[in-house]
Amino acid sequence: MKRTLIALSCLVLFAIPAYGQGGILNDSVLRADGRPAIGATVRVCTEAASGTPCSPTASIFTDKALTVSKTNPIAVDSGAAYTYYASPGFYKEQLCLGATCVTRTVLMGSDSAMVLLDRIELDRTNRDVVLTRESANRLKLGSGDAFELDEMSVGLWNDIRVVDGNKFTTCQAAEDDLGANNGLVIIPSTYAGADCSSLSSGITILDLRSGTFKLFTSQVGLAEPAFEVHPGTNNVQLHAAILLLDQIGDGQQEPSIHLRSNGTPTVGKGGFIRWEVLNDAPALKDAFTINGGLVDLTAGSEDGGADIGFLVNGAVEIIAFSGSREAFTPSTVSEGLFSLGDPDGAAGTINYIGWQGLALSHTAPKIVFYENDQTLPAGLFRIIQDAGSLRIDRNTAAAGDFSTISTDFSLSTSGRVVVGVGVSSDAGGFKHSRITTGSIGSSSSAAVTVTWGTAFADANYTVNCSVQQGDTDTATLQVDHIETVTTASVVVRVENEDAGAAKTGTLHCQAVHD
């Protein structure tokens, strides 16, 4: 019997349809002399298969969707050709004619490997290379230095996620894909889906919808963008939650926002608004300044303070908020100072020229004072004008809201002064005291010394004294006279007019300094 040799021809075709799931293999089985091997069979096995016949066999199909199974082994047609579809990968084909078999390894290509391409065009005139999809989406390498991406939905570029409607269809899906990584989510102007419901730390959202430019960061929260531009109305919004970080320390640049004119500063014109964080070792200080470069409109330079400048009829007026530790006159006023003054005042002084007073207009204008090292309700007072009187109220409510008060002083429109609970017994200009007279013998007198809690500055004060006695005798204790007056005390002579018994009473004294 004449031995039959089988020759293999590898005719791999690249006319691959788009969007397929499986690859196709078309081939023929030939004899050694080139004639078709009519009656041959092709057995398709897995790459790891062995033996003759080879085993295990692979799954092969009649359609590229890989849904209709094909008989395996395959009988070649009248031209010794055969065709089958399979998933991409390596396979073994065992080609047999009668009892003679030859085994080879083949690679099944993927139709999806070329899914974006069905045409390559080279335009020598314009130097364009155009790769076109069936859907008309384009990846265009243009002439010169131009490079264009036309409708290609990528969605994923390193730490950037684009809500492109393909890879990511929602804002939250794009944000979630970043996971714990820092990154940027871009929302295009055409996006009509829901906003992100949460935002992880280190992620920023760039929202380009509705003709606006909005920048959200995890430091701000989704309810309020940190930066917002509305081109249609020329409206730029910098929100309060914006976070600026910079190196803090002596000689370092401090974080700041500057809003200033774009012209060259000249004498008497221009200026800027500045917000910055100032480092005053050892504690970090926050400062708000509306000042700065040209608040001194006549000099065109900073004066070193935080201030607001006004140009009124050619004259410069300044409101200065000073938190510095530089000396002022009086020298005891050195910190936390609010001053209204003229910028031409001498250094270290407060000049009130041009500012004659402070006016408050309201149905109940008030000034509140809170000593913040006290525990409420203590340490909270207010001066208030209400119901036709000027009052000094002391808060007695634990909440510190003046829901309950003690009015310690009031002045009515008629000029009447009302003192509330009491007057200090040991003030600098007014003092009062109550002491026992001690036992004074019948028809006798005694010198009773009244000592003040703190001494007066000098002895120029007036004293009035009287005696309180508990019995009903007509013969009573009486103040006879005041013997001596010093800065620290007075001596009062008290007489007992009762000839039959000793008496004891209470001496009341009041003193008013000149």
How would you sum up this structure, described in words?
The protein has 6 domains: 6-113, Immunoglobulin-like, CATH 2.60.40; 116-150, no CATH class; 156-238, no CATH class; 256-341, no CATH class; 366-419; 430-513, Immunoglobulin-like (Sandwich), CATH 2.60.40. The chain is built from 1 helix and 36 strands. It has one helix spanning 171-178, and strands at residues 6-9, 23-31, 41-50, 55-57, 74-75, 81-86, 89-97, 100-108, 119-123, 128-132, 138-141, 148-150, 156-157, 160-162, 183-187, 203-207, 213-217, 227-230, 235-238, 256-260, 272-280, 283-289, 306-312, 315-322, 337-341, 366-370, 380-386, 389-395, 405-412, 417-419, 430-436, 445-451, 461-468, 477-485, 489-496, 506-513.
Label this structure with key terms.
disordered N terminus; Immunoglobulin-like; five-stranded antiparallel β-sheet; seven-stranded mixed β-sheet; mainly beta; 514 residues
Topology:
Layout lengths: L5 E4 L13 E9 L9 E10 L4 E3 L16 E2 L5 E6 L2 E9 L2 E9 L10 E5 L4 E5 L5 E4 L6 E3 L5 E2 L2 E3 L8 H8 L4 E5 L15 E5 L5 E5 L9 E4 L4 E4 L17 E5 L11 E9 L2 E7 L16 E7 L2 E8 L14 E5 L24 E5 L9 E7 L2 E7 L9 E8 L4 E3 L10 E7 L8 E7 L9 E8 L8 E9 L3 E8 L9 E8 L1
Parallel strand pairs: 14-15, 15-16
Antiparallel strand pairs: 1-2, 2-6, 3-4, 3-5, 3-7, 7-8, 9-10, 10-11, 11-12, 13-14, 16-17, 17-18, 18-19, 20-21, 21-22, 23-24, 24-25, 26-27, 27-28, 28-29, 29-30, 31-36, 32-35, 33-36, 34-35
Short description:
With 514 residues, this protein is mostly beta strands. Helix content is 2%, strand content 42%. It has six domains: 6-113, Immunoglobulin-like (Sandwich), CATH 2.60.40; 116-150, no CATH class; 156-238, no CATH class; 256-341, no CATH class; 366-419; 430-513, Immunoglobulin-like, CATH 2.60.40.
